[in-house]
Design goal:
single chain, alpha+beta, Immunoglobulin-like, 14-stranded mixed β-sheet, 5 helices, 19% helix
Length: 302
C-alpha cells in the first residue's frame, strides 16, 4: 500500500514539474512575443505625395501614426551582447501605390559614423521574408527560406555627405613611405586602369562588400540564417538619415514592386511580416551584438 501511494506521489510530482516547465516556457514565449501585442501591426498609409522624393522631415510625416517597436538584445547566437543601448524605436510608413517609405527614429546620445579601426558605426536594418508561405524564422531567416534586409550604416551617410572616408581622412596624422600607385609617374607604360590599382587594395580585390563603392546609403542583402548575410548587387532602396539632439531619424524608400524576384514586393491590401535591428556604436555593437525586435511584426499596406 505504501509503495502504491509513493508511486502515485512520484507520478503527481513529475506531472507537476512538467506543468511548471510548460508554464515557464509559456512565460518566456510571452516575454519574447508579448512586445508584439503592443505592436501588432504597422499601417502604411496612402498619401497624395511623390513618395519616391519624400524627405526626412516633410510635413506628411506629422499626420502619420508612429508605432512603438520594443527591442531586446540578440540572445540566440554568438557574439551575444549582455545589454543593448537602444531599447525601442518608432516606425512610420507611407506609400503612393508605386513607392513605399519607412521612417525610423530612436534615441542615441552619441553620433558614431566613422570607419576607424577602434570605432563602431551606428546602424539599423529592416527585414522582410521573401516568401511568407511558409514564414521563415524571424532571426535572419533559415536555409531555403531567405529574408531580404535593408541595411543602413551611419558611416555611409557620412560618406555621402562629406565624401568617401579613407585611411587618410580617418587618420590625418598618419605617415607612410608610399602606397602603390599613390604617387605621380609619367612615361610610356606607366598608365594604370582603376582595376589594376584595385588589385593593391586588398578589400576591394577580395570583393569585400564594405570596400565596394555604393551609390546608395542603404545596402540590400539576403540571409538564410545567422552568419549568412550576403550583399545583393541591386540598389533599389534610397534613403536619408539625420542625427540631431540625441535622436537618429532614418528614412528608407523603395518601389513597391521590382523585377528582382528575390526582393521584397508590396501590394495594396496585403500584410507583410517585418522585423527590425539597431546597432549603437558607442556600445561597441556590431554584427551579432545588436538590438532586435522580439518577433515578426506586420505592416498593412493600404
Amino acid at each position: 500500500m505504501i509503495e502504491i501511494m509513493t508511486g502515485k506521489m512520484i507520478g503527481k510530482m513529475i506531472r507537476t514539474k512538467i506543468l511548471l516547465v510548460l508554464a515557464a516556457v509559456l512565460v518566456l514565449v510571452q516575454a519574447a512575443y508579448g512586445a508584439d501585442k503592443t505592436f501588432v501591426e504597422i499601417t502604411s498609409v496612402v498619401k497624395n505625395v511623390d513618395v519616391s522624393k519624400i524627405g526626412l522631415n516633410d510635413d506628411v510625416w506629422q499626420s502619420v501614426t508612429a508605432y512603438r517597436q520594443p527591442l531586446q538584445r540578440q540572445f540566440l547566437v554568438e557574439p551575444k551582447p549582455k545589454d543593448v543601448g537602444v531599447k525601442e524605436l518608432h516606425v512610420q510608413s507611407v506609400n503612393d501605390g508605386k513607392y513605399i517609405a519607412f521612417r525610423l527614429s530612436w534615441k542615441d546620445d552619441t553620433k558614431d559614423d566613422t570607419i576607424k579601426v577602434t570605432s563602431f558605426s551606428d546602424a539599423a536594418a529592416i527585414q522582410f521574408p521573401i516568401s511568407s508561405d511558409p514564414l521563415p524564422e524571424y532571426f535572419m531567416g533559415e536555409p531555403k527560406k531567405p529574408v531580404h534586409i535593408l541595411f543602413w550604416k551611419a558611416w555611409r551617410s557620412k560618406d555621402k555627405k562629406d565624401g568617401i572616408q579613407t585611411v587618410k581622412t580617418s587618420y590625418p596624422n598618419m605617415t607612410i613611405d608610399m602606397y602603390t600607385y599613390d604617387y605621380k609617374v609619367s612615361g610610356a607604360g606607366t598608365e594604370k586602369t582603376q582595376a589594376q590599382k584595385d588589385i593593391f587594395i586588398p578589400g576591394r580585390a577580395a570583393s569585400n562588400p564594405i570596400d565596394a563603392v555604393h551609390k546608395e546609403i542603404i545596402e540590400e542583402a539576403t540571409a538564410e540564417g545567422p552568419s549568412t548575410l550576403k550583399t545583393k548587387p541591386a540598389e533599389n532602396t534610397t534613403g536619408d538619415a539625420q542625427w540631431q539632439n540625441g535622436t537618429w531619424t532614418l528614412v528608407m524608400i523603395r518601389p513597391m514592386t521590382v523585377a528582382d524576384k528575390e526582393s521584397v514586393q508590396f501590394k495594396a491590401g496585403e500584410k507583410k511580416p517585418i522585423a527590425f535591428a539597431v546597432w549603437e556604436g558607442s556600445h561597441m555593437e556590431g554584427g551579432g551584438r545588436k538590438a532586435v525586435s522580439a518577433a515578426w511584426a506586420e505592416v498593412l499596406v493600404k
